[in-house]
From TrEMBL:
The keyword Membrane applies. Keywords: Membrane, Transmembrane, Transmembrane helix. InterPro entries: MFS (IPR011701), MFS_trans_sf (IPR036259), NO3_transporter (IPR044772). It holds the Pfam family MFS_1. Signal peptide: none annotated. It is a multi-pass membrane protein. Gene3D superfamilies: MFS general substrate transporter like domains. CDD domains: MFS_NRT2_like. Belongs to the major facilitator superfamily. Nitrate/nitrite porter (TC 2.A.1.8) family. It comes from the Bacteria. This is MFS transporter. The chain crosses the membrane at residues 31-51, 66-85, 97-118, 124-141, 162-187, 207-225, 246-269, 275-294, 306-325, 331-351, 389-409, 421-441. It is found in: Membrane. The lineage of its organism: Bacteria, Pseudomonadati, Pseudomonadota, Alphaproteobacteria, Hyphomicrobiales.
C-alpha cells in the first residue's frame, strides 16, 4: 500500500493484524482532518446565533420573532442538506466530498460579511443569506458516514464520539471567538465603519483562513475507500427499517436538543436576561461537546440503550429546572440548569449514535443465524453499509431540532411573553423518548427479532 493513495482498495479494519500494521495510522489521520473540517462546518452553521444578537444595535429593525427565525433557518437547511450529504460519501468518496463540502463554506461566510454592514437589507434577503449557513450543517452527516467505515466495530463508539465532539465544539468556538474578533479592525477587509465598536462583518471573514486550511488538509491528508462505495438504492433500504425512524426520533431528543439549544441560547439570554453578556453563551455548547465522547465511551462499555434511557431522566429534570428559574428570573439557576441540560444532550448524542451500528449489526446477523461463515460475512458487510447510511440519515432528521427549538422559543415568546410554553413541550417530548427507548431496546420479551433480542445484545 502506498503512503497516501487517493483511493484505498484494501481496507480490513476488523482484521487485527491489518489494523495494527497500517489501518490504525490511516484511520486516525483521516479522523483528525475530518474533525477539522467538521469543526469549521459547525462554526459556520451557528454563526447566526451570535450575529442576530448584534443586529438591533447595528440598525436592523427586525422583531424578536424574526431574529429567532434567522437563528432557526440555518438549522432547517442544515438538516435538509444532511440527506444528500449522507449518500455523497459512498458515491464520490470521503476525501473528495470533504474537499467540496469545506470549500463551499466560502458562500455563507462571505455573503454574511457583505450584507451585515447594510442595515437597509430587507428581512427576506437576510433570511436567504442566513439559510446558506445551513451548508455547514450538512458536513456532519458526510463526516460521520465517512469515519464509520474507517474504524472496527469495537471502536466505532469512540471514533464517532470523538469526530462528533470535535465538530460539535465548533458551536462553542463560534460563540466564544466571534464576539471577540468582531472588535478587531485588523481582519475587516471591507473597511466598513464599526457600529458601537463592533465590526459585524468579521463574523464571516474570520472563517476564511480556517476554511482554506481544511480544504488543504482534505486534499493532502485524507483518503477515499473503495469498500465504502455503494449505490444509493442499497443505502435507501434503511428507510424501510423501523429502527431507522425510532432512532431518528430519539436523536431529535439528543442531538436536536444540543444544536437547537446551542442556536437559541445566546438570543434567549439576550431576551430573558438583557443585563447579562452573551459572551457566556459558549459554555453550554462547550460542555455539551466535551460530554459527547463520554456518552460514546460509556455506551461501548455498558450499552447504548442503557445510557440513553437513564440520560433522558436528568434531561427532563434539567428542563424542569430551567422552567422554574426562567420564571423566577434567576440567572445563576437558569445557567446551572441549562449547563446540566447541555451535558446530558452531549452524553445522549454519544450513546444514541453508538446504538445505530449495533442495531443494524444485530439485525443483519439475526437474519443469517445458522447459515455459515460466508453468509455471516455478507451480513456484516451489509450492516456496515446500512449503518453508515443510517448514521447520516438519522443525523439529518435529528438536526431538525436546530430549527424546531429556536422557532419554538420565538413563537412562545411572541404568544405568551416567555419561553415557558416551549420548554413544557420539550419536556413532554423527552418523556416520550424515555418510553420509546425502554419499549424497543430495554424491554425483554419472547420476540425473536424484537425488543427481546436487542435488549439481550445491549445495543
Amino acid at each position: 500500500m502506498t503512503k497516501n493513495p487517493t483511493w484505498i482498495s484494501d481496507w480490513r479494519p476488523e482484521d487485527e493484524a491489518f489494523w495494527n500494521a497500517t489501518g490504525k495510522t490511516i484511520a486516525r489521520r483521516n479522523l483528525i482532518w475530518s474533525i477539522v473540517a467538521e469543526h469549521i462546518g459547525f462554526s459556520v452553521w451557528l454563526i447566526w446565533s451570535i450575529v442576530t444578537t448584534k443586529l438591533p444595535q447595528a440598525g436592523f429593525h427586525y422583531t424578536t420573532d424574526q431574529l429567532f427565525q434567522l437563528v432557526a433557518v440555518p438549522g432547517l437547511i442544515g438538516a435538509l442538506m444532511r440527506f444528500p450529504y449522507t449518500f455523497a460519501v459512498t458515491t464520490f468518496g470521503g476525501r473528495n466530498w470533504t474537499i467540496f463540502s469545506a470549500a463551499i463554506l466560502f458562500i455563507p461566510t462571505l455573503s454574511l460579511a457583505c450584507f451585515v454592514s447594510q442595515p437597509d437589507t430587507p428581512f427576506w434577503l437576510m433570511l436567504l443569506i442566513a439559510s446558506t449557513a445551513g451548508l455547514g450543517g450538512g458536513n456532519f452527516a458526510s463526516s460521520m458516514t465517512n469515519i464509520s467505515f474507517f474504524f472496527p466495530d469495537r471502536m466505532k463508539g469512540w471514533a464517532l464520539g470523538l469526530n462528533a465532539a470535535g465538530g460539535n465544539i465548533g458551536v462553542s468556538s463560534v460563540q466564544l471567538l466571534t464576539p471577540i474578533l468582531m472588535t478587531l479592525a485588523v481582519i475587516n477587509l471591507f473597511q466598513a465603519s464599526p457600529v458601537d465598536g463592533i465590526f459585524l462583518q468579521n463574523a464571516g471573514l474570520m472563517w476564511v483562513l480556517p476554511i482554506a486550511i481544511a480544504v488543504f488538509g482534505a486534499v493532502f491528508f485524507m483518503n477515499n475507500l473503495t469498500t465504502a462505495k455503494s449505490s444509493v438504492k442499497n443505502q435507501l433500504a434503511i428507510v424501510k427499517r423501523k429502527h431507522t425512524w425510532i432512532m431518528a426520533y430519539l436523536y431529535i431528543g439528543t442531538f436536536g436538543s444540543f444544536i437547537g439549544y446551542s442556536a437559541a441560547f445566546p438570543l434567549l439570554i439576550k431576551t430573558q436576561f438583557p443585563q447579562i453578556t452573551i459572551a457566556i453563551a459558549f459554555l453550554g455548547p462547550l460542555v455539551g461537546s466535551l460530554s459527547r465522547p463520554l456518552g460514546g465511551w460509556l455506551a461501548d462499555r455498558i450499552g447504548g440503550s442503557i445510557i440513553t434511557f437513564w440520560n433522558f431522566i436528568p434531561m427532563a429534570g434539567a428542563t424542569v429546572g430551567v422552567l422554574y428559574f426562567v420564571g423566577q428570573k434567576d440567572f445563576i439557576g437558569f445557567l446551572s440548569m441549562f449547563l446540566i441540560l447541555f451535558v446530558t444532550t452531549g452524553i445522549g448524542n454519544g450513546s444514541t449514535y453508538r446504538m445505530i451500528p449495533s442495531i443494524f449489526r444485530e439485525q443483519n446477523l439475526f437474519r443469517v443465524r445458522g447459515k455459515g461463515d460466508a453468509e455471516r460475512a455478507v451480513a456484516l458487510k451489509t450492516a456496515s453499509i446500512e449503518s453508515g447510511a443510517a448514521v447520516g440519515f438519522i443525523g439529518a432528521i435529528g438536526a431538525v431540532g436546530g430549527y424546531l427549538i429556536p422557532t419554538g422559543f420565538g413563537k412562545s415568546i411572541a404568544l405568551t411573553g416567555g419561553p415557558q410554553l416551549a420548554l413544557a413541550i420539550y419536556l413532554a417530548f423527552y418523556a416520550s423518548c424515555l418510553g420509546l427507548t425502554w419499549w424497543f431496546y430495554l424491554r425483554r420479551s419472547p420476540q425473536g427479532e424484537g425488543a427481546g433480542s436487542l435488549a439481550e445484545a445491549r445495543v
